[in-house]
Amino acid sequence: MDAILVTGAAGQIGSELVPALRQSFGAARVIASDIRMPASAAAGATGPFEHVDCTRPEQIQEVVRRHGVRTIYHMAAMLSAVAEDKPQAAWNLNMVGLYHVLEIARQYRCAAFFPSSIGAFGPTTPRDRTPQDTVQRPTTMYGVTKVSGELLCDYYARRFAVDVRGLRLPGLISYAAPPGGGTTDYAVEIFYQAIRYRHYTCFLRPDAALDMMYMPDAIRAILELMAADPARLAHRNAFNISAMNFTPERLAAEIRTHIPEFSIDYEVDPVRQAIADSWPRSVDDSVARAEWGWSPQYDIAAMTRDMLAKLGERLKPAR
Ligand SMILES: NC(=O)c1ccc[n+]([C@@H]2O[C@H](COP(=O)([O-])OP(=O)(O)OC[C@H]3O[C@@H](n4cnc5c(N)ncnc54)[C@H](O)[C@@H]3O)[C@@H](O)[C@H]2O)c1
């Protein structure tokens, strides 16, 4: 029985990717792994869990061999704001970790998924409707590791025929697990604060436009890309995808349609604002639509309604 390994499974994406994979392929076939135990039952308690540090190739290899892993979803990475704070550690996890995963995929004939990001672009990239194939000169360590990772994945596909596929994900909004220190975290935090305190202090400027996606769309995109007919994939790796585009001001207005007394103010964090300023304001995802049929289901209104409903079941207003 071919097994599936998810690295970094306790994170924001892994917490929802593991249950989705278990639903599709059976709980026993999907091995969740991380360097920390998953906080909730989402990834850990519903099936096998292994401690795997991706900077230690022998740990990945041992689990791949023991479980008969044939597909690796490589989610372990340091996110943009944390990577800017610890650039050396970010290189080690994001690049050396990916290299180990690709080497093991080559040796054990595994398929692999690599999540790139809109952070793989930089200030010299066209910022509006950024094309699929364009200038990529990022100025953050996160971006350097993402564009290098895209190139390394392409190299392993071409040189060693490793079936490695990937997406350039935008900011992801979800309620199952907290975000891990990215520049778009505000778009998750705002919902917690809106429900609890009717107020949010945002670390990006009111007009900072970025592409975003609700987690159910992101999980579906990952599964659909991995199931896509390889003959249709001219790109295979690093597809631009998007679902919605908004500024903090626009998201606050959308929340106000449900919570009229909600207010927002701004204390701009220069580090995260500078990262946001170096990224596209929006990307063109027409190549993903053409090559494997990408189509988002959640816009800002549908996402906001669902986030407030799901978090509202868990959180109570503070007063
Ligand atoms: N969340 C987003 O908005 C977003 C957007 C674009 C791309 N991505 C990419 O998707 C991937 C997953 O992102 P996420 O949001 O789930 O991140 P996250 O920070 O929530 O989770 C990352 C996980 O990796 C684990 N980890 C850290 N060091 C490790 C190591 N040495 N070995 C194994 N695991 C380790 C952490 O414990 C954590 O659970 C990353 O590559 C990220 O760059 C995320």
Order of neighbouring strands in the sheet with most strands: 3-2-1-4-5-6-10
Largest sheet: 7 strands, parallel
Q: Give me the strand/helix succession.
A: EHEEHEHHEHEEHEEHEEHEHHH
* Structural class label: alpha/beta
**In angstroms, what is the radius of gyration?**
19 Å
If you had to describe this structure to a student in words, what would you say it looks like?
The structure is a single chain. The chain is an alpha/beta fold and 319 residues long. The chain has a 7-stranded parallel beta sheet with strand order 3-2-1-4-5-6-10, with helices on both faces. The chain has a 3-stranded mixed beta sheet with strand order 7-9-11. A two-stranded parallel sheet has the order 8-12. Strand 1, helix 1 and strand 2 form a beta-alpha-beta unit. It is globular and about 55 Å long. It starts with a strand and ends in a 5-residue tail after the last helix. Bound molecules: nicotinamide-adenine-dinucleotide. Nicotinamide-adenine-dinucleotide binds next to strand 5 and strand 7.
Outline of the structure:
By secondary structure, the protein is of the alpha/beta class. Helix content is 42%, strand content 17%.
Provide tags for this entry.
seven-stranded parallel sheet, 12 strands, alpha/beta, binds nicotinamide-adenine-dinucleotide, 319 residues, globular, three-stranded mixed sheet
